[in-house]
Amino acid sequence: MISNRLSPTLKIRSFGAMRLENNEEISGFSAYEIIITPHKKLAIHIGAMTTPTTELRPNPTTWQSQVETNAQAKIIGGRTGIKLRYNLNSKSAISYGVFNHSGVLAHHVKFKYDKVSVAGYIESDFFFTAVEYQSKKINTTITYLYNKELSASLFYNFSNQYSLLLDSEYNFLTERVIKTNIGLRKYYASKKLPIRGFFVLSYDPVFDKILQGGFMIHI
Fold first, then answer.
1. Rounded CA gap, 141 and 154, in Å?
2. Residue-by-residue DSSP string for the chain
3. Could you give the CA distance from residue 35 to residue 83 in angstroms, rounded to a whole number?
4. Which burial class, exposed, middle or buried, applies to 192 when counting CB atoms under 10 A from its CB (0-12, 13-18, 19+)?
5. Partner residues linked to 32 by β-bridges
6. Are the CB atoms for 31 and 46 separated by under 8 Å?
7. Closest Cα to residue 106, out of 51, 149, 58, 63?
8. Is 117 exposed, middle or buried (0-12, 13-18, 19+ CB in 10 A)?
9. Rounded CA gap, 137 and 97, in Å?
10. What is the per-residue pLDDT for 113?
11. pLDDT at 1 > cutoff 90
């Protein structure tokens, strides 16, 4: 991520990411925006960037985006448009934006109060909404795509080292649960090197009924 302040009220910012996988084409994205702050509580963003709804997803330049839950992955990525953010006070803020969804204009809105964020957009004849709650013990995301699917994920942190993950999705077209996952994570951090990560055990009690293990390392 690179940013440059041109004046006290004007800044430009850009960031990008690339993903390399075996037997797959290189994928990636870039974002660039002009940020105008005519008032300390008001910011205007213009360019290709995160929408107010996208802000509920893990930041793509962090390790969390590589292991996001199914519910988090349902949230839309960045788009080209304009958005306004106004900080009501130290705990709450509201954002509104208009973005290009493959040739269709969509209206996005987000409201944040303390640990709760609610966001969504309206596009043509359907809408999408997402709710996020973050605290020291609980991190949950719920998404709803009009007349199609409802997804939810929950992290319960027993401590700084252990957390439980529950992830599921219900499809209204088939009228059945189409995804389930129960996972247990054990986090670790090296005392000598800038390396962190976690071990994970996961189980699908409905479909595969297979116990799987894995690990994640990030610097």
1. 7
2. -EEEEEETTEEEEEEEEEE--TTS--EEEEEEEEEEEEETTEEEEEEEE--TTGGGSPPTTSGGGGG--HHHHTS---EEEEEEEEE-SSSEEEEEEEEEETTEEEEEEEEEETTEEEEEEEETTEEEEEEEEE-SSEEEEEEEETTTEEEEEEEEESSSSEEEEEEEEEETTTTEEEEEEEEEEEEEE-SSSS-EEEEEEEE-TTTT--EEEEEEEE-
3. 10
4. exposed
5. 14, 48
6. no
7. 51
8. buried
9. 32
10. 97
11. no
pLDDT digits (tens, 9 = 90+) for 177-205: 999 999 999 999 988 888 999 999 999 99
Q: Where are the domains of the chain?
A: 2-218
Contact 34, 23 (CB under 8 A): no
Measured CA to CA, the distance from residue 14 to residue 175 in angstroms comes to 42
Backbone angles phi, psi at 66, to 5 degrees: -80, -15
Q: Is the separation of the CB atoms in 166 and 195 below 8 Å?
A: no
| Residues paired with residue 117 on neighbouring β-strands, in sequence order | 112, 132
Name residue 151's beta-bridge partners: 143, 169
| Identity at 174, one-letter amino acid code | T
Residue 111 one-letter amino acid: F
* Predicted local distance difference test score (pLDDT) of residue 170: 97
Distance CA 130, CA 110 (A): 9
pTM metric for this prediction: 0.89
